Amino acid sequence: MTSPTHADHPGASLGLPATGAGSIARPGRRIAALAIDYAAATLIASAFFGYDQFALPSEAGLTMFTPLMVFAALQVLFIPMLGGSPGHRLVGMRLVRADGAWTGVWRPIVRTALLMLVIPAVVWDQDQRGLHDKAAGTVLLRA
Questions:
Q1: Is 28 exposed, middle or buried (0-12, 13-18, 19+ CB in 10 A)?
Q2: Does the keyword Transmembrane helix apply (predicted)?
Q3: What global pTM score does this model have?
């Protein structure tokens, strides 16, 4: 017997289906998308900004943050344009507002800033929405 305060599945309180298109994206897809996006950011940082992933932190200086900045730029640019980052789209996810509408421009900026802090992204509610998504009013769905 489930309590009335707990949903039967992630996304139930948002009116989303349990599985299939339009359901909450599960952790495996999220982690895969994050790995794809960060790998792409590292490749771009290495190719265009002289980032050396094997340099010691004392030798790298501020360039050690270049992949993180490229990662943020990818998120902020692609979420409004494509409905998700390249990693999201490759693993079959899309990011929308909680009401299902287009994210707009400011939501991806807030979401990305909080995502870069890491902690908001690993603290979830019963719908498996990270604090970064709750603060931005977004939800990551299966496409």
A1: exposed
A2: yes
A3: 0.87
